[in-house]
Amino acid sequence: MRVPAIIRWPGKVPAGVVTNEMLAAVDWLPTLAGIVGASESVPKDRPIDGVDASAFMLGKSSTTGRDSYMFFGIDGELLSIKWKIYKAIFRYTETPALEKPYIAPQFPTFYDLTSDPHEDNNLFNSDMTCGWMLAPCFKLIGKYQRSLKEYPNIRVGEDFKGYEKAPPRSA
């Protein structure tokens, strides 16, 4: 989160662009495939969590197409969600993270990353009207949970053998 990146490709990627657009590590596969014209090579038989931001990289769009990102712990469970300029924390761990158990606050904590990049001031401590921020988070969580029913995560050490085709729904 909040890691700078530099992209350089003279004649293809516009020079001198500075942006706060969101891009995640999982976006590189579809983005690079899109940039070189190989989007059809990105697997279609499984969910790909990345978005194709090639139009943004090539200066053809002002946005990356990503407005949220879900963070998961080493146990595979949800930790937090970044949505637009906000971050909602559902679980966290103390430092050093690998040696401490996860802690779930009684109520999620929310931060405005534009004015509080160090996540020092939980918005709910000063403004209880921030409850509306739960709606986009729950929408993202619901979408993710529905995708798990159709495309379950692969267990550690298990070979991916594809997904069974679901029977067509009757009208």
Description:
This protein is of the alpha+beta class. It has 2 domains: 1-66, no CATH class; 68-152, Arylsulfatase, C-terminal domain (2-Layer Sandwich), CATH 3.30.1120. Helix content is 17%, strand content 13%. It is built from 3 helices and 6 strands; from the N terminus they run ααββββββα. The chain has a 4-stranded antiparallel β-sheet, covered by helices on one side. β1 (68-72) and β2 form a beta hairpin.
Question: Largest sheet, described in full?
Answer: 4 strands, antiparallel
CATH class of the largest domain: Alpha Beta
Low-confidence stretches: none
At CATH level 2, the architecture of the largest domain is 2-Layer Sandwich
Give the N-to-C terminal Cα separation.
44 Å
Q: What percent of residues adopt helix (DSSP H or I)?
A: 10-25%
- Tally of separate helices: 3
**CATH-defined topology of the largest domain:** Arylsulfatase, C-terminal domain
Specify the overall morphology.
globular
Gyration radius from CA atoms, angstroms: 19 Å
Structural class: alpha+beta
Number of domains: 2
What percent of residues are in strands?
5-15%
| Rounded average pLDDT | 89
